[in-house]
Structures are given as structure tokens and as C-alpha cells.
């Protein structure tokens, strides 16, 4: 059972920041999930939203901004004054911090082939390629990952199980398919079909303790949660 830290230990520290990733490791995460976007001057950075507005003191689309502007924003104060001055990390800084961990790296759209190449080459540079699954909601980005290097393990995210889910999983040859918790609980047949193909199912975002038991009994390989240490403690009971 993977304890997957969603954007790091995001219940305790600002999502997708170095403090959230350090806390995820200490909290017992066995996989650390985060989101990658690329700045206007081609620097991969770790941030969830399209814009800086919700989680930083800055504003504007990540892809319109030079890295210097993204780096100047405060990515901690919105969460708590305890994290004032925390920055949006580069992908390189995250990989350096997590060089001994296992990663679930989500590429957010839009992403081009050269941008995906840069991300995969950074995984190589930090010795993390074998310990990383690269996933996306966008099947075309998963195809780009395969084009860059078919040996990189791939995952597909789904907002909901749709009629083409199993066909897409087969076509993209993914190792995991990660839907919402509601779909796992509401559609056990699709979960069973995925597990029968050897594909791991790790639902997001499993923050409700009451759902942890039913999800695990439903056959999931891991839970993607903001509540990392709570899940670690709960699994130990
Ligand atoms: O990895 C699952 C989860 O991160 C997908 O949703 O919006 O948090 O990136 P989101
Ligand atoms: Ca994500």
C-alpha cells in the first residue's frame, strides 16, 4: 500500500514546496506526488495551478512568466505565516531534495515535446528515472513521455472512469491509472478490470479517513492524500 503524498504533505505545509516534500518524507510517504509546469524561458517548476494567483504572492500564467518572476513570488504566506518566504521550487531543486525517494511526477498541460524531454533528462541527471512514474490527465502528454523514452514508467489520471478508460490504459501501456476516490468506490468493476491487467489504481484525493478502509478493500495499490502522517499512523493500527 503506497502512502502517496499529494503535492507533498500538503495538509501541513504549502503544497508543492520544499517544506511540504521534506515533511512528506518524514511523515512516511512511500511515493511523493507533485505537479510540473514550464516557465516562458523553459525552466520546469513545481506548481499546481495554471497561474501563480492562488498559491503565491504573484500573478499570471506560469507559461507567460520568466523564471525570475516565478522565483520572486512568496509561495508560503497564503498557507501560513510560518512559511513566509517559501518559494516555488524548480524541478531540479525538488529532485535534488528527493534524490532518495520514489516519485509520482504529474506533467500539467500544456507541455511540448522539448519540455517533456527536459523533464525526463532531469530525472536521469538526478538518478531518479527508475524510481519515478510520470503521469498526466492528458493522454497526449503521456504519449510524449513514451516518445521521449518508452522505458519511463507512465501513469494516466482520470477525472472519472469513462468508456475509453481501459482502451487508453492499454494503448498507453501505463503502470497506474489514478481516478477520483468517488469513481473507485462507485465503479468496482473498472477497478477490478484494471487490476486484472496488472495496472495499479491509486485514487485522489483520499483525505476522508472513513473512506480509507473501503478504498483499500476495493483493491487500490495506494492512496493519494494530503494527510500523509495520519495515513501512516492509521495503516499501523
Ligand atoms: O495525482 C493525483 C492528483 O494530483 C490529481 O489532481 O488536481 O491535484 O493535480 P490534482
Ligand atoms: Ca497532481
Question: Which helices and strands occur, and which strands form pairs?
Answer:
Elements: E1 2-6, H1 18-26, E2 31-38, E3 44-46, H2 67-72, H3 91-97, E4 103-107, H4 113-125, E5 132-136, H5 139-148, E6 153-157, H6 165-172, E7 176-178, H7 181-186, H8 188-196, H9 209-217, E8 222-225, H10 228-235
Parallel strand pairs: 1-2, 1-8, 2-4, 4-5, 5-6, 6-7
Antiparallel strand pairs: 2-3
Helix pairs in contact: 4-5
The structure holds SN-glycerol-3-phosphate and calcium ion.
Question: Any overview of this molecule?
Answer:
The protein is α/β, with parallel strands linked by helices and 237 residues long. It has one domain: Alpha-Beta Barrel (TIM Barrel). The protein has helices at residues 18-26, 67-72, 91-97, 113-125, 139-148, 165-172, 181-186, 188-196, 209-217, 228-235, and strands spanning 2-6, 31-38, 44-46, 103-107, 132-136, 153-157, 176-178, 222-225. Strands 1, 2, 3, 4, 5, 6, 7 and 8 form an 8-stranded mixed sheet that branches. The two termini are 14 Å apart. Calcium ion binds next to β2. It comes from Paractinoplanes brasiliensis. One of its GO terms (biological process) is lipid metabolic process. This is Glycerophosphoryl diester phosphodiesterase. Pfam families: GDPD.
Bin the helical content. 25-40%
Overall form: globular
Number of contiguous helices: 10
* Count of the domains: 1
Residue-averaged pLDDT = 98
CATH superfamily: Phosphatidylinositol (PI) phosphodiesterase
Q: How big is the Rg? A: 17 Å
Cα end-to-end separation: 14 Å
Structural class: alpha/beta
Q: Tell me the strand percentage band.
A: 15-25%
* Total strands: 8
**CATH fold title:** TIM Barrel
| CATH architectural designation | Alpha-Beta Barrel
Low-confidence stretches: none
**The CATH class:** Alpha Beta
Order of helices and strands: EHEEHHEHEHEHEHHHEH
